Amino acid sequence: MAPDPAATTTLMDTNSTNILISSKKKKKHKKKTTPSTALSMDSPTNMKAIIPSNKSRTFEEELQYLEKLSHTKYRVKIGFVPNMIIPADVIVNQTLEDILLEELEETCCSCSISGHGSTTQPKSKRSGGFIPALKQMANVAALPGIVKCLAMPDVHSGYGFCIGNVAAFDMDKEESVISPGGVGFDINCGVRLLRTNLMEDDVKGEVREKIAQVMFDHIPVGVGTSGVIPVKQRDIDDILEKGIDWAIENGYAWEEDKEHCEESGRMMTANKNCVSSKAKKRGLHQIGTLGGGNHYAEVQVVDEIYNHEAAKSMGIKSIGQVCVMIHTGSRGLGHQVATDALQKMDKAMHRDGIKLNDRQLSCARINSKEGQEYLAAMSAAANYAWVNRSCITYLTRRAFQKVFDKTPEELDMHLVYDVCHNVAKIEKHVMDGKEMKLLVHRKGSTRAFPPNHPMIPEAYREIGQPALIGGTMGTCSYILVGTEKGMSETCGSTCHGAGRALSRNASRKRLDHKQVLGYLKDHNISIRVASPKLVTEEAPESYKDVSEVVDTCHDAGISCKAVKLRPIAVIKG
Prior knowledge:
The chain is α+β, with helices and mostly antiparallel strands. The chain is 29% helix and 22% strand. Strands 9, 10, 11, 13, 17, 18, 20 and 21 form an eight-stranded mixed sheet that branches. Strands 1-2-3-6-7-15-14 form a seven-stranded mixed sheet, with helices on both faces. Strands 4-5 form a two-stranded antiparallel sheet. Helix 5 packs across helix 11, helix 8 packs antiparallel against helix 10 and helix 10 runs antiparallel to helix 11. It is globular. The two termini are 15 Å apart.
């Protein structure tokens, strides 16, 4: 769900020629070549496949590096790409597995037999600048100091790191690195959910259309738009260091909102002085704006409740209850922070002799000057994103007040939770029975800590941290809760959304925006969008099935389903 503006930049991979994803329609792989049958589930996990060392391998040769550990987990073994330090795991079900394998197959070289019986030069089935997600996560597993590398079911190719990647580095190792590619360009792109005491019957027909229009009028949307929240130059530094506290001090957030934000809406590792003047300038007029791409504000209703205890703790009481989901991040400021850091890290890598499989994994030693400056600037951008979502919440509460002639307090518009899914944070985790201080990168994955963890709000200690999983335009969203198994196996992480199946360019070519708008109308979903022709990029057909992604996480035990929500009004850029 987190947009990755540079995802289509030409990439360089030492092991494959690359392509663009073609479609959600999956090929049937021959049974004899699938990892589930070619590899034993109880074979040694650290065994390197015996494969020719040439740079180009066939699909069948690549499959020897993939081991099926369970019905929801694959392991990419050491040797899949050069210099891997640890294996990399990916959580998938059969359908999502097929998508990954098709992508890998299309980027492999296929040898054909000539009329003389000799093998011709291997050729890729397609060409282009695309590194498949399995290769990307394996490249991450080759980074210095890494101790954990895995990908979620919504995995797809991104900038350097695949989207859906979780990568943890040992803070006590001098060689350990921090990488902007492991966070993404939209730092602290995240999701928050507001509840209300309204029911679906209260927002039917003309009322639904009115709330959609009033929200669209209140919340600036689209790429490059300016906000209506008055922010002066001197405010930016406070926003970068104080996070949600700035919003509370200036009347744009409720005091209690802070308690229901990840990190309490403020990363203490932030330093405004590490954010460039260019980044600050880009962020000056974008507070309280959604932006474009896959960002949205949605009016939703509770469709199913799987865990009544958890739902009750969140103030969600019944089917049909109206909620509001907001999905956006740090806008142009975060993008500039990432861009600035990448330029500095290229020089630092040369100085420190850091070798990479892919130049887009640009990084720096965590404790180097460049590493510490990026950590501080990234944290400041994360604080900016919390203020941005807080100000959109303020505008949403005002919109509801205007439509229903009741105060937000009377409408019970309390914040359920706010999570980020593009960030790197210092956390303590147990690895092989030993507590370790790790720098955990989550790019397109959501933190999901278990019950009784001290880092989650008191109200949710007994049920586990809520993880908000946004669907695609017109499809359902979910609230999950963290588990102990997730804490031990994924550093307390789960999925973040559906994950793209079609590139934006392919979506525009294959889908018609009028058909997409018609689909929403047929399903009684009101929509307000700044650029109607761009809705094809966010159509359900452009993404994997979010329910399959969520069910896979639930089946794997890394998070548990609590609530399902469906949209009735969508506001987009």
